[in-house]
Each structure stands twice: as C-alpha cells, then as structure tokens.
TrEMBL record:
It holds the Pfam family MTPAP-like_central. One of its GO terms (biological process) is RNA 3'-end processing. It comes from Caenorhabditis remanei. This is Poly(A) RNA polymerase mitochondrial-like central palm domain-containing protein. GO terms for molecular function: RNA uridylyltransferase activity. PANTHER family: PAP-ASSOCIATED DOMAIN-CONTAINING PROTEIN, POLY A POLYMERASE CID PAP -RELATED. Residues 3-82 form the Poly(A) RNA polymerase mitochondrial-like central palm domain.
Amino acid sequence: MATHCATRESDMDICICASYSGPYQSSPAFILQAIYEDLQHNHHAKEYFGLEGVSDLVFISTAKVPILKFKMNGVEVDMSVSFDIISPPKSVLAARLINAYCQLDERFTILVIFLKSWMKSELSNTDFMRDFPNSYSLILMLIHVLQWHGIMPNLHETHPHLFDFEWKEESMYPLEWTDVIAHQQRSTNTLSVAQLLHIFSTQYSNNIIINCCKLDMGSGMLETRGERDNAPIFIQDVFDTRNPARSVRGNEMVQALQCVSKLFSNPKNLLFQRIWRVTRMKTYLLPR
C-alpha cells in the first residue's frame, strides 16, 4: 500500500503474512532466518527483488520485532513477518489512512514531503529519531493539527470502514471521488501550503500543547495527559497504541518550530530557504 508521499530517501516496508499448520507456530525469526540464508546463497532468489538484486543484507534477530534489512536497487527495505492472516497488518491500515489524506488534498502531500525532508538533520538516523519525530509521527501531527483547525476531516469518524480490520478491499485511491470534490469546495481549500505550514509551526511551537496535551488521533481532539504520559511528544494513535513518537527524547522540534514561527511573523525573500536553514544549521541552538 503506497502512501503517495515518499521522498527519494524513503524506504520500503515489506510484511510477509505467513500461515502455519499443525499445533505449533513457527517464530517470525525462523522464517526470516530462512529468507536471509536464501538471499545470501541463492543467486536466483536475489533476482526476485529487482534487476540489481539484493545488497547490504542484515538480519536483526534480537530485536523485539525481528527484521531483515537490505537494499533493493538502492532502495532500503525492512522485511518483517506476521502470522495474523485474518486481518491486515496495522501498518497497512496506517498507510491506507495516509493514502486517503493524500488523495483528499494535494497540499497535504506537499506538506508531508516538505516536513519530512526539512526535519531530517545532518546527524545519523539514531540522532534524528531522538531529536525529532519519525516520519509516521510527523504525518500524524500534521493530520491532527489540520483536523483541529477544521481544514481536514477526521477520516476515522467519517470513513471508519476504511480502517476496519475486516475490510479487505485495496485501491490506489481509497476515497470516493465525490468525497474529494466535496472537500475541494470547502472554504479552507483556499489556504496556501505556506499558510498551512504556518499553522503547523504555530501549533507545535506552543509548549503548553506539547507538554500538557496528547494528540488523540481517534477523536481528533487535544486531550489532557495522564500521569504516565510523560514523553516529550505524546500521540494516542489508533494503530500504534504505544505512542509512535516514543523515541523522541528532547524538545528540539519545538525550538526549531519557534524559529519558523518567527520567520512567518516577519517574512522576507527566500522564506523556504530560510526555513530549511533552521534544521540544517541548527539555528534554534544559537544564543538568543
């Protein structure tokens, strides 16, 4: 299921939906181990994954979710295994949600690609996930703020069947075109991408919202945090119930967005290039 908002640096997630017979279920690690060995030693198996085959093959068996990592024609791939043959993996449903919002509004797609590219610091992937939300969390934050301001609908409420575990139908465009046309006729459709980016930066540079609230994706509301909801950014997601932004350790994103808000309050030429410098040169860390 494509999300339609990938960048050149995006990876591909492959989930093998396996079944078993008999009283005992094989472990995901056992299946991935077999695939790993086959890709290592079977030349024909590698060719299934592209003209250039497979490179940089790594099997991480000790992770909580065992994963096989490799590159296919230069594209990074993460492969996992699921034995849940009745319902699709939650990652598929999450991708369907993102896909639907991309179909609904092209401004959403542009914003996702810009924010994903912009917030990538020059540090390693580990440092990036510590300082800023991962791509999925960032997309959820964008969806939530656009819902909060009435710019986008809450598809969990308006189209719950799309995210039902029993719903099997797949399509490149999950929404009916009548829904898309109706959205395009809303008054908020006249807002530019820059205006929506300003709304995003203003919302999440607010320390009260970040520190005291959690983003409830099911209701589209800002909820008061509980005593145990002490992560720097807390998202109550329908699919990833353990907080998709749990890897974030600091408040660098808030500081970066505060710099962006200031740029919008006094716009100058080359606005987007100036925004880009915020994370590339870490201007939010300079003495004020």
